[in-house]
Write a structure and sequence with these properties.
The protein is an alpha+beta fold. The chain has two domains: 29 residues; 89 residues, Lipocalin, CATH 2.40.128. The chain is built from one helix and ten strands. The strands form two sheets. The chain has a five-stranded antiparallel sheet, with no helix packed on it. Strands 5-6-8-9-10 form a five-stranded antiparallel sheet, with no helix packed on it. The protein is globular, with a radius of gyration of 20 Å.
Length: 121
C-alpha cells in the first residue's frame, strides 16, 4: 500500500470521526444561547453549556441550574423575585422542562403542559 493511499484513508477516517463527534455534541448545544426578546414585559432566557440559566419572565429576574439530557432541558431549582407587574403574564417562572425545534424553545410546566415559546435571538 502506498503512502498516498494510506494518507487518503486516514483523511477519510478523520473526517468521518469529526462528523460523528459533531453529531454527538450537538444535543446539548441546541439549548445553549439566548432565547426570547430583551424588552420590557417580554420573557427572555440564556442557557449555557453547563446548564446554568438566567433571564426574566418579563417582570422578575430568574437564575438557576438545569440539566440537558437528550432532547430535553430540565430546569432545576431557581431563584426569582415575585413582584407583580401590570400587563405581564409571568409564565417562565413556572418552567419545568423545555425542548428545541429549530429556532423555537418550547417551555413546559410539570405534567408536560406547554406554557410558552421563545425564539432564538
Amino acid at each position: 500500500m502506498s503512502t498516498r493511499f494510506a494518507r487518503a484513508g486516514f483523511s477519510i477516517a478523520a473526517v468521518a470521526t469529526m462528523i460523528v463527534l459533531a453529531g454527538c455534541s450537538s444535543s446539548g448545544s441546541s439549548f445553549t444561547g439566548d432565547w426570547g426578546q430583551v424588552a420590557p414585559g417580554k420573557p427572555s432566557l440564556t442557557i449555557t453549556s453547563d446548564g446554568s440559566f438566567s433571564g426574566t419572565d418579563g417582570c422578575n429576574p430568574l437564575k438557576g441550574q438545569g440539566s440537558i439530557s437528550g432532547d430535553t432541558f430540565t430546569f432545576g431549582p431557581f431563584a426569582s423575585t415575585l413582584k407583580a407587574c401590570e400587563g405581564v403574564t409571568p409564565w417562565l417562572n413556572l418552567a419545568a422542562t423545555a425542548k428545541v425545534d429549530g429556532n423555537t424553545l418550547t417551555v413546559y410546566r410539570s405534567g408536560d403542559t406547554k406554557i410558552g415559546t421563545l425564539q432564538r435571538r
